[in-house]
Design goal:
methylmalonate-semialdehyde dehydrogenase (acylating, NAD) activity; seven-stranded mixed β-sheet; MeMal-semiAld_DH; six-stranded mixed β-sheet; about 40% helix; alpha/beta; single chain; oxidoreductase; methylmalonate-semialdehyde dehydrogenase (CoA acylating); Aldehyde_DH_dom; about 500 residues
């Protein structure tokens, strides 16, 4: 893998890294320093068309490539990702601001999906039944659907692309990746390694851009399926536009994840997990805990939670004492600061204010410190909206039933968790809660790749989710065959063979 960062990022089209002929370029900046790392093109329509055409042409042969060959490419790919994990993490930290350990975790969670994709032979097995009726057998195959595309967000530039294209390609499809324009360097390095692993020309294309380029892909008739992760407004647009074009769409959108803390919970573990899950990665993850619901006696833990959050500090990724990094951009920082100011105006108690925090030596970083609000009510914007920053809201509930009702009233349904020592309380919670991913004494319940990432309600638009068995269903079509063979044909064949022998 080439570890240098080019001044202008190329595109992967027709198996080659080519520079765009566009006239408009965007700057990719280091969010901790403001330094310009590279420039990313707004891919032209002609270049996008070339990528789609190439992917369509490559699909003809790739779909007939034996599943064992596809699996071996994934095996080589995961080995290369592991070999280059630290160098990838350094690049990822530079362009996202994530701490080095967080960046390595981003890559590792993607590697786990690639390992799952290497098991594609067993994942794509169909079903069969003999003699469903008199002398009739029935069986099914899973077959690839064609050219797929993925539109990925800034917050996980390694993990989320690796959610998408390895599974799609392992299933026999070809893929066009459009990474976030805010941190596209890491995805380019991922594509480099995929080509190094032996991927044939045209199986993976990588293009760049913003809304105009996304709409081109959404509306192109040769693209059969769209995968997206991002905000609610964009997710809704992706889903509506894609489905209007009669495409398959999986669109993962926003979240407002709650953590319920019961009176019998392990206090130390609960508080440590509240803090880590709310401010880790600067709160820029769709599974972050942004609301803690304190039930009963835990409402007396405010000072303990405040004290635990107050020692957590942002910093540069090369600082081993940094707990999290900056926000991705100045605009993102201003948005979060706006919510903090609004929370104060709406009457919440700001127990910890990270608005004016600074990091020595990095005056141009997009820093926001841990921020804690108490006495938050469900009508406040800091509760209703996804802030996407290191901001935690504390709400009180008199009982588990009240906490469940609060969460089920929230429009989002990405993840939730409960901290308790009671198996009965945990079971009631997991059964009655209308959220797709539930943690019990685990704050961020992201499933491993042999399950699927299963957000619900306004956190997801579509039918089949990411990775796991649902991803295989999303990226394939089921073909069912019903067959009958007549015994009389056996006799005819035997008679014919005997006649030939006599002659």
């Amino acid at each position: 893998m080439n570890k240098t960062i080019p001044s202008k990022l190329p595109q992967l089209i027709r198996g080659e890294w080519v520079n765009s002929s566009c006239s408009d370029w965007l700057e990719v900046t280091n969010p901790a320093t403001g330094e310009v790392l590279s420039q990313v093109p707004l891919t032209t329509s002609e270049e996008l068309q070339s990528a789609v055409t190439s992917a369509k042409e490559a699909f003809v042969q790739w779909r007939d490539t034996p599943v064992t060959v596809r699996a071996r490419i994934m095996l080589r790919y995961q080995a290369l990702l592991k070999k280059n994990q630290e160098s990838l993490a350094r690049i990822l930290s530079e362009e996202t601001g994530k701490t080095f350990e967080d960046a390595k975790g981003d890559i590792w969670r993607g590697i786990e999906v690639v390992e799952h994709a290497a098991n594609i032979a067993s994942l794509m097995m169909g079903e069969t039944m003999e003699n469903v009726a008199g002398g009739i057998d029935c069986y099914s195959y899973l077959q690839p659907i064609g050219v797929c595309t993925g539109i990925t967000p800034f917050n996980f530039p390694a993990m989320i692309p690796l959610w998408m294209f390895p599974m799609a390609i392992a299933c026999g499809n070809t893929f066009i990746l459009k990474p976030s324009e805010q941190d596209p360097i890491t995805p380019c390095k991922l594509a480099e390694l995929f080509m190094e692993a032996g991927a044939p020309e045209g199986v993976l294309q990588l293009v760049h851009g913003g809304p105009e380029q996304v709409d081109f892909l959404l509306k192109h008739p040769d693209i059969k399926a769209i995968s997206f992760v991002g905000s609610v407004p964009v997710g809704r647009h992706i889903y509506q536009t894609g489905t209007q074009q009669l495409k398959r769409v999986q669109a993962f959108a926003g979240a407002k994840n709650h953590m319920v803390v019961m009176s019998d919970a392990n206090k130390t573990a609960a508080i440590n997990n509240i803090v880590g899950a709310s401010v880790g990665a600067a709160g820029q993850r769709c599974m972050a805990i942004s609301v803690a619901v304190l039930v009963g006696d835990t409402q007396q833990w405010l000072e303990d939670i405040k004290n635990a959050m107050s020692v957590v500090k942002p910093g540069h990724w090369q600082d081993p004492n940094a707990d999290f990094g900056p926000l991705i951009s100045a605009a993102a920082r201003e948005k979060v600061l706006g919510y903090i100011a609004r929370g104060k105006e709406e009457g919440a108690d700001c127990l910890l204010d990270g608005s004016d925090i600074s990091v020595e030596g990095f005056p141009h970083g997009n820093w926001v410190g841990p921020t804690l609000f108490a006495n938050v009510s469900p009508d406040m914007s800091i509760y209703t909206d996804e802030i996407f920053g290191p901001v935690l809201c504390l709400l009180n509930a008199d009982s588990l039933e009240d906490a469940i009702q609060l969460i089920n009233t929230c429009p989002y349904g990405n993840g939730t968790s409960i901290f308790t020592a009671s198996g009965a309380a945990a079971r009631k919670f997991q059964h009655e809660i209308s959220v797709g991913q539930v943690g019990i004494n685990i704050p961020i319940p992201v499933p491993l790749p042999f399950f699927s990432f299963t957000g619900w309600r306004a956190s997801f638009y579509g039918d089949q989710h990411a990775y796991g068995k649902q991803a295989v269903r999303f990226y394939t079509e089921t073909k069912t065959i019903t067959a009958r063979w007549y015994d009389s044909d056996i006799e005819q064949v035997e008679h014919t063979n005997l006649t030939i022998q006599l002659k």
